[in-house]
Amino acid sequence: MLKPxxxxxxxxxxxxxxxxxxxxxxxxxxxxxDELEILTILVKNxxxxxxxxxxxxxxxxxxxxxxxxx
Length: 70
Known about the structure:
This protein is mainly alpha-helical. The protein is built from three helices and no strands. It has one domain. The longest helix has 20 residues. It is elongated.
């Protein structure tokens, strides 16, 4: 039974399972395709709360781009 991710170890385990499922030829609406969908939702939620990426400051984006083009 799938549960919400509460540890780094569980997160890694779910990633491994996702990788395995993505390497197989899943049939639409199969038990495995449903499992893959649920796992990806759980992993995304975990990543959003533990590895959040802040949106950049618009001024910093412009400065960065200007530096790039000289």
